[in-house]
Amino acid sequence: MRGFPTITRATVCAAAVTALIQPTPAVAESPGVPGSAAARSMLDGLTVAEGGSASGYSREKFPHWHTVSGACTTRETVLQRDGDGVVVDGECKATAGSWYSPYDEQTVTAASDIDIDHVVALAEAWRSGASGWSTEQRERFANDLDNPQLIAVTASVNRSKGDQDPVNWLPPNPAYRCTYAQMWVAVKSTWQLTVQQAEKDALARTLQGC
What we know:
α2 (36-45) packs antiparallel against α8. Strands 3-4-5 form a three-stranded antiparallel sheet, with helices on one face. A two-stranded antiparallel ribbon has the order 1-2. A hairpin with a 2-residue loop joins β1 and β2. It contains eight helices and seven strands, in the order ααββαββββααβααα. It is globular. The termini are far apart. The protein has helices at 9-20, 36-45, 74-82, 122-127, 135-142, 155-161, 177-190, 197-208, and strands spanning 67-69, 72-73, 83-88, 94-101, 106-108, 114-118, 150-154. By secondary structure, the chain is an alpha+beta fold.
């Protein structure tokens, strides 16, 4: 009868050390992410209202991606900001690099596998007050690089999110949920968008654990 392999204390310790020294993917920091206390304060200041109608909404009413510099659009700018070792061609298209998606802890090496997520989805913004904005305002929102509204994530996780708010969707990576809630609140506060009561309650619960 074949015996089981002997597991010594040294074997266990070696495995533990190996686990500890595994490199952790770097998470690109989006601009303007508030701390948890500041986010709770921002959340308290948001206007609570029923969600507006989706009538009249289309993505075309939020023009994106616009040119940021030279041939680089907002998408390419975020790909360079959030990626590692990104190489671009003469048209600013990413031809090499890697991207760590903090929503689902996946690392990909093809820019085509990456979406630029609007943290507060365009349709959600429409229902929260953007329906009354000018096209210029909606364009600035859809291309906002100054606030934590844009982040590079895998196309699969972005499409699973769709236009859902934090009542129905949070990143599958639990370690990123605090940051996500902080980003969401900051965007809604900066752009003076409303929240529904259930949305506010979900955000408050998330931020309590931060």
